[in-house]
Amino acid sequence: MPFKDFRITSPYGWRTHPIRGNRHYHSGIDLVKGHKEPLSAFVGGEVIYAGMGRSGTGVGGYGNVVLVKDHTGAGHLYAHLDKVSVKKGQTVVKGQTVGTQGATGQVTGSHLHYEV
Fold first, then answer.
1. What is the pLDDT of residues 4-13, one digit of tens each?
2. Using alpha carbons only, what angle is made at residue 113 by residues 82 and 63, rounded to the nearest 5 degrees?
3. Which of 19, 81, 75 is nearest to 52 (CA)?
């Protein structure tokens, strides 16, 4: 159970967007542990993006993010982080801290937006 320490506040799939109010496909899952709590990698891999997600990067609007590419080539996005604890090019192992829960980017409160 990778999400056992979290409360799910918004599941994957169709929902009403919390800021714009329109019907929107939520491409991840929103998880709450505690503001500024350390967040561990759910999988190991290579950090291919770490820092503020900017327009044109594919992660704009997500605030501080970490994107980890796993051994199958899939990307694991940790978004809206308060703080990023890893650097691009770094190898992380499952369970390693990648950042802390936050409320950066387009959010209504502190949480982790996670998507694969």
1. 899 999 999 9
2. 45
3. 81
Determine the 3-state secondary structure of 51 from DSSP. Answer: strand
* Token pair in block for residue 91: 């190898």
* Beta-bridge mates of residue 92: 45
Q: Which pTM was predicted?
A: 0.93
31: left (phi over 0), alpha (psi -120 to 50) or beta: beta
Token pair recorded at residue 32: 């709450």
Q: Return the C-alpha torsion angle 4, 65, 97, 72, nearest 10.
A: 80
Q: What is the pLDDT of residues 45-75, one digit of tens each?
A: 999 999 999 988 889 989 999 999 999 999 9
